[in-house]
């Protein structure tokens, strides 16, 4: 493969960060991960704190910020001057997680997908989503 075709091929490959919903873990994305990887994409499906195989216990979480720490740490670890901007996908409660990540790392995110997910907005915060 010549260099020009290889560069073009690499441009089409994306890094997907799949964020699970409440009462799940990164494991729930196994079929989606396999399909994306077979298409040549990079996939990361972290366990949020106290979820999946993450060692923290739910009773040890003092805030939503602590719950989202694994995602924040992942995004912090990405090079800041990289052409690789991730595509965040959040399911259910994962929408809250990716919303927080979007605010903290706007230059590291190419797009966000809210898959049947909570989607706060500037005038409708996290707590208003639970009001009747």
Order of strands across the widest beta sheet?
A: 2-1-3-4
Query: What would you call the structural class?
Result: alpha/beta
**Topology as a string of helices (H) and strands (E):** HEHEHEHE
**Can you count the helices?**
4
Number of strands: 4
CATH class: Alpha Beta
Rg is 16 Å
Question: What share of residues is helical?
Answer: 25-40%
Weakly predicted, low-confidence segments? none
CATH architecture assignment name:
3-Layer(aba) Sandwich
Mean pLDDT: 85
Tally of individual domains: 1
Biggest sheet, in brief?
A: 4 strands, parallel
Tell me the overall shape: globular
- Under CATH, the topology can be stated as Rossmann fold
Key features?
132 residues; 4 strands; alpha/beta; single chain; 4 helices
List the helices and strands and how they pair.
Layout: H1 3-12, E1 15-19, H2 30-38, E2 42-44, H3 64-77, E3 86-92, H4 94-104, E4 109-117
Parallel strand pairs: 1-2, 1-3, 3-4
Summarize the structure.
This protein is α/β, with parallel strands linked by helices and 132 residues long. The protein is 33% helix and 18% strand. It has one domain: Alpha/Beta hydrolase fold, catalytic domain (Rossmann fold, 3-Layer(aba) Sandwich), CATH 3.40.50.
Written account of the structure:
This protein is α/β, with parallel strands linked by helices. The chain has a single domain (29-79, 86-130), classed as Alpha/Beta hydrolase fold, catalytic domain (Rossmann fold). Helix content is 33%, strand content 18%. The chain is built from four helices and four strands; from the N terminus they run αβαβαβαβ. A four-stranded parallel β-sheet has the order 2-1-3-4, sandwiched between helices. Strand 1, helix 2 (30-38) and strand 2 (42-44) form a beta-alpha-beta unit. Helix 3 (64-77) packs across helix 4 (94-104). The mean pLDDT is 85.
